[in-house]
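agent> fetching stored inputs for the nicotinamide-adenine-dinucleotide docking request
agent> found them:
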Amino acid sequence: MITDSEKTRINKQMDSKKTYNLAMIGFGGMAGHHCTQLLKKNVPINISGVYDIDESRMEAARARGLYTYCSKEALLSDKNVDIVLIATYNTTHAKLSKEALLAGKHVLCEKPVTVTSKELEQVISLAKAQGKIFGVDQNRRFNKDYILLKRCIEKGLIGKPYVIESRVEGSRGMPEGWRCQKSLGGGMMLDWGVHLIDQIMMMYEDEKVTNVFCKMYSIHYPEIDDNFHLTLTFEKGLTAHIEVSTNTFINHPRWYVLGSDGTLQIDDWSCAGRIVKPISEDKSWSADISPNQAGPSKTMAKRSPDTINTVSLSAPSDVEDNLDPVYRQFIKAIEGQPLQIKPEQCLRVVKVMEAAFLSSSTSGAIDTQI
Ligand SMILES: NC(=O)c1ccc[n+]([C@@H]2O[C@H](COP(=O)([O-])OP(=O)(O)OC[C@H]3O[C@@H](n4cnc5c(N)ncnc54)[C@H](O)[C@@H]3O)[C@@H](O)[C@H]2O)c1
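agent> prediction call returned; pasting tokens
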């Protein structure tokens, strides 16, 4: 329970009108993480209770001091509940979101918001008809590595980017359960792909994706994509290359960006990285090819070190946990301000994922206007 003095502190900090009651449908790993973060009381939200179809997860919620509803209907008919968090298997998001909206609740849904664009269009229309806020937990828009990347690009530190490579690579395979089942929305495209596509799309919100090419692999898990390589082409020429792997033992950098004036690399989640750019032309061209490590090549010979500048990158110090800003913008939207993570933005991402599945299954590039 939040004490009165805590309520005043949080509400003042957010300039919020009240403390909101949130109930969770699904209490697995991610809902548990929401719970941990909400209990820090950085946002004016009280957890009113939890419902999960798995009794062992209800027990886990009670062990954390949470109230458990005896049914989904009991949760949805609780008049004290303002917000419903949907944190269940991916294919259940659309139906549960609709039910919660119809029950008169604001809804915050985990990613991927829905599996098909048709489902999402229906949910968006319903939220409008009900006059309720429908938000999506695209929390990785607030990740340190992504914010660092965006800041460097916005400041023009590497000129105009023409290739952005974004990779998330693990070697531990897939966790057991629904993530390995197609019918429940398993696979890496819907799990990590949705975040990585969303990040790139938010940097190029005003540019259409005109081509999608994807190759999905089922290396150890036959039902789903446990690895994929995706290439998006944007209308002004940017290529975004996105890879997710669960079977990689030597990782690429998290981000690698080629710009007109330099190259940027962010190595991993620590945000260590660097920008390398020229400070002067390398004049060491000559008519003869001098022997070098690249063999008989002028273009690929090592550059003279005094012609380049290297700037080290490190994690920005002003970035908070990525769930707090998701909740903050959601509450502000309930109180009348524009929603920052708009479901319409997520609709573009779902459409790109649909094109990616089509591309992979037909082994061809798909022309799009997304
Ligand atoms: N935003 C993020 O960074 C992030 C991270 C991890 C997971 N997620 C998302 O969160 C969701 C849940 O993932 P998870 O890792 O917690 O999975 P999980 O398997 O740990 O938990 C899912 C829970 O939902 C319950 N459930 C399923 N259908 C239900 C229903 N109809 N009613 C009530 N309960 C139901 C299951 O019993 C289970 O306890 C997924 O959509 C996933 O993509 C988001």
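agent> quick read of the result: The radius of gyration is 23 Å.
agent> awaiting further instructions
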